């Protein structure tokens, strides 16, 4: 009897391991991870923080089981870019000096740092278990569903019922041509997701990984959501992404021997454009009809500056999305409206983890972008455009929003950084005694 029971247990273990180690299981977990990360606002609105945290814990268990089952198939050396490790480590270390008065600051920092690490782990899992084209397909499938649900609810609220759906933050302004929020809580977040979706659908179309009819319908859906969101920050990011796409289109058609000259020329041109945009920033803001949004951000940043001098080097301690505690409550009271962030990822990081944390975050985004850009400009497959374009959107959006520091935006940043690092690793290159060049250039 005991022998039979032992044999049954062994068979059950092998069956479970084979199931958890299968490609279909990894695909399902990837879709779940992306869906959970980008629908977190809707999940919180429906079942609250306990439900979201329970769902996240279940996701991490599934990711862990899949990793254990496929342990031998994973190349563990150089999994994470050092920039991710150091930035996340610094955020976690901020628990030691978190000093927000009037609140249990170390506990806040510990919980929020764990939340940051959880989504980073999910992002690492996605980057490890799936190829770039599979990741693009996963994001495309999830974005199609989330944007479709958003439009359906906006139609229900604004046309069929003519009533807001308060618990989701949907105002029902579709008949007035927006702005709409969908299931994402704000028009800027909807615009951010719609832009990510639009670029993802374009890559799907160009790689012929979906039918043409489906690709056109998907791009139309994303474009409608982007337009009706009425988000000025999204329009600016769209402009940057289109310029980057045009530049990559040209670079991919230049000879490998002369491509570095064009890269330097583009770098100089980009610096010139940034300086020019800064000089004419007021006029650009007026053209984008973003004066009201810019004034809101300026007011928040002005209040933040009053508290920055107290902890400039190490910051106040990592909290991610702002809690209802000092000094964040003081800033909200001073500005007269609630805020969940500093409305700029760079400033938010500076405030929470100081100058050191801000430099580490800039290094994370910058190094990932350089790697992804070089890969996109050198590799033949169109799919390598996707990480570079995602990082362009993240880098530009982070000037006016903090999406890159939480949930879906943060997981997307981790996925792109890990994929770029694994395809162009400085550590592997130094160990081999050669510069880190894309594979296409090594093959000649």
UniProtKB/TrEMBL annotation:
Keywords: Membrane, Transmembrane, Transmembrane helix
Keyword set includes Transmembrane: yes
Domain of life: Bacteria
Keyword Membrane recorded: yes
Pfam name, any one: Wzy_C
Membrane spanning residue stretches: 25-43, 49-69, 76-97, 109-128, 149-170, 182-203, 210-229, 235-252, 264-284, 349-370, 382-405
Protein name (record): Exopolysaccharide production protein
Species name: Agromyces albus
């Amino acid at each position: 009897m005991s022998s039979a029971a032992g044999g049954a247990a062994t068979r059950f273990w092998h069956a479970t391991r084979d199931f958890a180690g299968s490609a279909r299981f990894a695909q399902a977990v990837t879709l779940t991870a992306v869906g959970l990360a980008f629908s977190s606002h809707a999940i919180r609105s429906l079942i609250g923080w306990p439900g979201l945290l329970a769902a996240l814990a279940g996701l991490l268990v599934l990711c862990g089981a899949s990793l254990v089952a496929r342990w031998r198939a994973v190349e563990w050396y150089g999994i994470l870019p050092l920039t991710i490790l150091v930035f996340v480590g610094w955020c976690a270390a901020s628990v030691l000096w978190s000093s927000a008065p009037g609140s249990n600051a170390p506990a806040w920092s510990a919980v929020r740092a764990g939340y940051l690490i959880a989504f980073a782990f999910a992002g690492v899992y996605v980057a490890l278990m799936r190829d770039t084209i599979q990741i693009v397909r996963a994001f495309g499938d999830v974005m199609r569903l989330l944007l479709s649900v958003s439009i359906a609810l906006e139609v229900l609220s604004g046309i069929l019922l003519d009533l807001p759906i308060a618990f989701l933050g949907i105002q029902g302004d579709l008949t007035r041509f927006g702005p709409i929020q969908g299931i994402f809580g704000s028009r800027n977040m909807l615009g951010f997701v719609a832009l990510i979706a639009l670029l993802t659908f374009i890559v799907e179309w160009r790689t012929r990984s979906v039918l043409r009819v489906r690709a056109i319908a998907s791009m139309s859906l994303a474009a409608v959501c982007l337009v009706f969101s009425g988000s000025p920050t999204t329009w600016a990011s769209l402009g940057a992404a289109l310029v980057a796409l045009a530049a990559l289109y040209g670079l991919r058609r230049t000879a490998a021997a002369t491509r570095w000259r064009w890269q330097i020329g583009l770098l100089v041109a980009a610096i010139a454009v940034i300086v020019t945009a800064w000089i004419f920033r007021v006029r650009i803001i007026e053209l984008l009809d973003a004066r009201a949004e810019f004034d809101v951000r300026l007011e928040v940043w002005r209040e933040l500056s009053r508290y920055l001098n107290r902890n400039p080097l190490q910051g106040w301690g990592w909290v991610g999305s702002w809690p209802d505690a000092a000094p964040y409550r003081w800033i909200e009271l001073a500005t007269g409206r609630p805020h969940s962030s500093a409305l700029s990822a760079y400033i938010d990081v500076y405030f929470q983890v100081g100058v050191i944390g801000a430099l580490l975050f800039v290094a994370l985004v910058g190094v990932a972008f350089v790697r992804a850009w070089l890969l996109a400009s050198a590799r033949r497959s169109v799919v390598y455009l996707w990480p570079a374009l995602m990082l362009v959107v993240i880098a530009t959006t982070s000037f006016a929003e903090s999406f890159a520091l939480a949930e879906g935006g943060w997981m997307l940043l981790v996925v792109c950084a890990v994929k770029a690092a694994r395809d162009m690793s400085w550590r592997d290159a130094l160990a081999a005694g050669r510069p880190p060049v894309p594979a296409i250039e090594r093959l000649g």
